[in-house]
Here is the input.
Amino acid sequence: MNIAIIGSGRMGQALSALFVEAGHEVTLSNSRGPESLDEMVAALGPNGHAAEVTDAVAWADVVFLATPWGKTAEAVSVVDDWSGVVVVDGTNNRSAPGPDGLIDIGDNVSSVLVASYVPGARVVKAFNSTPLFILAPALGANAGANNAVYIAGDDPTAKSLVADIIASIGGEAVDTGDLATGGWLQGMTGPLAGVMEMLTPADARSRVEAARAALDAGVTTHSNETRSNNMAKVALSKSIELNADAEEVWEFVSDFAGHASWQPHIQSIEMQSNGERKVNFTRGDSVFDRIAELDVAGKRLAYELVPGQATPLASLLAAFTVRAVDGHTEVEYAITVEVPDPMQDMARVGIGADIDGALAGLQERFSA
Ligand SMILES: NC(=O)c1ccc[n+]([C@@H]2O[C@H](COP(=O)([O-])OP(=O)(O)OC[C@H]3O[C@@H](n4cnc5c(N)ncnc54)[C@H](OP(=O)(O)O)[C@@H]3O)[C@@H](O)[C@H]2O)c1
Here is the structure.
């Protein structure tokens, strides 16, 4: 099949590699022109190509959108006529991981908005709900039983074409419904979003059924990120300077499983098989959290609460950032939580103490 991809960043590259491996012809495009993609195309081999967006779309049997939310309308606007084109929308209304990265689109469903940018196109939402660093390694040559990929759309023929493409890369499409309902279920504020593990198709299907039943019963299980009534956001950030090598400090700080050894508020950590942590606090309670972003080049580890737990926190996003500054190393530890209004003072004191304890632990570790 001829597959055009608009956007050649993380998603464009991950999908193009899978598609080429499956024998498809792939044309990548971006805003900087095909020459800027020479290296990427060479790495893809003879089935990889690059073109201007308009040429890529005219050539393709199916077009994947892999652009940042804020650039998507502009990216597709260069094409005059989208009538009948099968468009796979992999975008999310998000600028970064975590609660602060969500882009407010009111009551709109993101893929319904995207469909309005490509009038006449047959839009299928897919590949949006799981981070690529989890999704891509579980497909292609490595594909196993945990290979479900959610899809939503209004056009059955387009959906079946996309399901075939997913099957060609070792996945199994799991239908979440039409673009408005399924698109919402698997969109950023829906209950199927933010899946930090690959699911079996049976498991994915039962989650869809449960989510649809809850929806029919009037239970709106928005992710915590949209809960703002009577909630307060408390953000604290502190830094420390260490006389140590930044690489060495980063290696220590980024060991997600090892935080109990130097953060006094953590009694122990039990790593789960899906990469989540069960964090047992010294004060007696426990939560599950998970990595939201691991930026090795930028030396930044961000982690967040796994949604749906019995905790007064509607959300938590914490990040360690390590920087080499003038011969020493600076470590910043920032935590943002959303709590019910009456708890905000307590939360500020609590996270302040946790940050102080962690930074003191680092000071002690690197003071020699
Ligand atoms: N990364 C993930 O794990 C993940 C998972 C699920 C969904 N998503 C969603 O997938 C989309 C892409 O994410 P990403 O992580 O791949 O982003 P990314 O790495 O920032 O890549 C975005 C790409 O879009 C291109 N682009 C920007 N403006 C454009 C325009 N006007 N016309 C054509 N191309 C344009 C950029 O290239 P130029 O700047 O050179 O044009 C770049 O190649 C986002 O909506 C994201 O929310 C990402």
About this structure: The domain at 227-365 is CATH 3.30.530.20 (Alpha-D-Glucose-1,6-Bisphosphate; Chain A, domain 4). Residues 6-12, 30-32, 53, 66-69, 71, 74-75, 90-92, 94, 128, 131-132 surround NAP (CB under 6 Å). The radius of gyration is 22 Å. The longest helix spans residues 344-365.
